[in-house]
Write a structure and sequence with these properties.
Elements lengths: L2 H15 L15 H13 L5 H4 L13 H11 L3 H25 L6 H8 L19 H6 L14 H19 L2 H10 L1 H11 L8 H5 L6 H18 L17 E6 L5 H8 L3 H7 L14 E6 L12
Antiparallel strand pairs: 1-2
Amino acid sequence: MAKDSKRRTIVGLIAGLLGLIGLGKATPKTGNGAARARIAAAAMTGEASPVTETIVGSEWDLPVERNERVDYWIKFLTTEKRDRTEQWLERLGYYGPMIQAKLEERGMPRDLVFLAMAESGFDPTAYSRAHASGIWQFVEETARRYGLEVSEYVDERNDPIKSTDAALDYLQELYDRFGSWYLAAAAYNTGENRVERILDEHAGGARGDESLYWKIGEYLPRETRDYVPIMLAVGHIAKNPEAYGFKNVRYEAPMRFEEIRVEPGKSLEEIAEEENVDLEELRRLNAHLVKGQTPPDREWNVRIPVRPDHAPAVSFA
């Protein structure tokens, strides 16, 4: 692929055109309860980001590729898109603990957190020209298939917690079908049937080997060919940010909130005033309330920032 074409592709991806990507090769394993507890505890207490323990300096928890294509994207993200990449690293501190806790619970590799990082830069309101939305960039049809509400007042593609559950459900199904996180990525972006057809035509119907992704790469759409290299590039940077010039990254504090039951049709502005909480943080926690209010036809559980006079709280349910 020509260099200019690659640049156009990454610009589109940064705008939210990436599909759900899988990394490396690993058989789903039993979750590590101790690690999961550390992640959740750090999130609840508001301590320094657990990202520094579970990501920075850590080994990959699945086999990883490093090749010319991965190196190209590392260079691009650390030069031409350096400011954007640093912003993504900072947000990793906010959303990473929640996503890693869910991965641990399912026995999936924790490093799949890089999916969301590269999908949207952890922007829950990211919206693409392909009409995909949220951290995991779901289109409406797929969102509804996995139980997310997409309506006039509620778009749960923008709910980082519920959309993470849906994305991991989908990713696991694709992994079970193809036996490869890389092939699961390709299938998420371009469709299961297309990937299956390409495997049948150009790989003898083989499954279960990450190298198959590279073998069929030339037959995949251009964006799909670059998904895995970009995901791996993001992961390499996140695991060793100082090596790429990102010194003293200011990771955001982990997501912390309480839930309250709110009457129909109530605005977030009213709730912020009544509960004496920061409005911008309230909006961030409830990005799925697309009109800035609870639905007019029902009560709703609203997430509010943990208040100084309350015990720390968090819910990933």
